Amino acid sequence: MTNSDPTQKAEAIARTVVPDGIVDPVASARAELKAALAAIEIKGNVPRRVEQASQRGILRARTFARRNPIGAAAAVVGVAAAVGGAVWVIARALSR
Fold it and tell me: Which spans are transmembrane here (predicted)?
């Protein structure tokens, strides 16, 4: 599930759009309510959005690693050094 997945985008858009041609006011109100609730569910479902964002990040990282393995190794070393430095700074601050 990537951001560029057209079927997922089309499904999300289809759920949040009120169909044209509804003449009955009650049916129109129901369709608008259904579309509004679907839009709220899509926007408000934070765990699902986080999962989709992490999947996109993983896919991007794998693509980068396949295209540029030396750059990926350098990025891993840089992140490890940054995390290690942050842990060292925190541990040193706590020990004083």
Answer: 70-91
Q: What are phi and psi of 21, to 5 degrees?
A: 90, 5
Query: Does the pLDDT of residue 4 top 60, yes or no?
Result: no
Query: Inter-axis angle of helices 46-67 and 69-95, to 10 degrees?
Result: 130
Q: What is the pLDDT of residue 6?
A: 59
How many CB atoms neighbour CB 20 within 10 A? 5
Instruction: Please name the residues in contact with 53: beta carbons below 8 A apart, sequence gap of 6 or more.
Output: none
Q: Is the dihedral of CA 74, 80, 65, 54 positive or negative?
A: negative
User: Is the distance from CB of 43 to CB of 20 less than 8 angstroms?
Assistant: no
Number of neighbours of residue 3 by Cβ within 10 angstroms:
11
